[in-house]
Specification:
Length: 54
């Protein structure tokens, strides 16, 4: 089996990109929830804040 090593810098860059995408998704999701008057939006936004998306 071949060893596929990934540098710490590659992991760091992928992590940054993942978090950026997650934050963009949260923004989009919250806008949508506001538009449809989602009844539990405040709770959901608090969950986003817990995982540092704001």
């Amino acid at each position: 089996m071949k060893n596929n090593h990934v540098s710490i810098n590659e992991v760091r860059m992928l992590s940054i990109e993942f978090l950026k995408q997650l934050k963009d998704h949260a923004k989009y999701e919250e806008k949508y929830m506001k538009r449809i008057a989602y009844p539990y939006i405040d709770i959901h936004i608090k969950e986003h804040k817990k995982i540092c998306l704001h």
